[in-house]
Amino acid sequence: MLPEIEQLLVIQDRDQKIKAHQIELNSLPLERQRVEQALKNKIEAFDQIKLRGKEIEVHRKKLELDANSRRDTIAKYKIQQSQTRKNEEFQAIGQLISRLEHEIEQIEDEEIVLMEQGEVAGREIQQAEAELKASRAQTEQQLTALANKQETLERWLRETATERETLAAAIDPDLLSRYQRLFTSKNGTPIVPVEHEVCMGCHMKNTTTTVHKAKLAREIVYCEQCGRILY
């Protein structure tokens, strides 16, 4: 194998890894956003559960006030009833008292339902709060891991870029320029082996002469179909 090919293969390996790591690095902001959004969704869900519990409690207290208001009214009616001497007025007040007592019963029934709902909501809030706490811890760990990963990738890219620059300095500029164009146009595989007269890049057959030249390794040989460098 030509020394130039050996050197280019090392550069190709570094370039492929740089490309893969750069893609991975570029994906980190989206991954971070996904992690943060997942926590945000948990927080919003927890807030909704708490709001539901609060609404139940507010409604229950309102019913309690409504019931107490009716009890106060009943007490006043009873005083008024005890003071009247008219039978018709006595009966009318009695009917009012009966109606208010019936309303109080209905309110108390509704209060019982709300109390049961409140107990369920309380358990849901406790469970959701525990889950949110776990999610916060998990999110913190994930964000820390992503930050460490970013730092590692950036350091590796800097080191590899320096190494790659040193390797490239030993390559003929024209050959390096062609390699770089091929790297871009051939999706990161500018140098490929030829096997059974077939280019392993485009999988097309080359002439026997071209394959023979590649085997002799005396000059740079290019695939007749795709233009990749063959070895």
Q: Mind explaining what this structure looks like?
A:
- 80% of the residues lie in helices and 4% in strands.
- With 231 residues, the chain is mostly helical.
- It folds into 2 domains: 9-171, Helix Hairpins; 172-231, no CATH class.
- The strands form 2 sheets. Strands 1-5-4 form a 3-stranded mixed β-sheet, with helices on both faces. It has a two-stranded antiparallel sheet with strand order 2-3.
- Strand 4 and strand 5 form a beta hairpin.
- Helix 1 (3-83) packs antiparallel against helix 2 (87-168).
- The longest helix is centred in the middle third of the chain and has 82 residues, at 87-168.
- The model has no long low-confidence stretch (mean pLDDT 96).
- Spatial shape: rod-shaped
Pairing-aware structural class of the strands and helices?
mainly alpha
Proportion of helical residues: over 70%
CATH architecture of the largest domain: Orthogonal Bundle
Give the ordered list of helices and strands.
HHHEEEHEE
Major sheet strand order: 1-5-4
- Main β sheet profile: 3 strands, mixed
How many distinct folded domains?
A: 2
Tally of helical runs: 4
Rg computed from alpha carbons, rounded to a whole number of angstroms: 41 Å
Content of β-strand: under 5%
Count of DSSP strands: 5
Distance between the termini: 7 Å
Assembly level = single chain
Average predicted confidence as pLDDT: 96
The CATH topology of the largest domain corresponds to: Helix Hairpins
Query: What is the top-level CATH class of the largest domain?
Result: Mainly Alpha
Which stretches of 5+ consecutive residues score pLDDT under 50? none
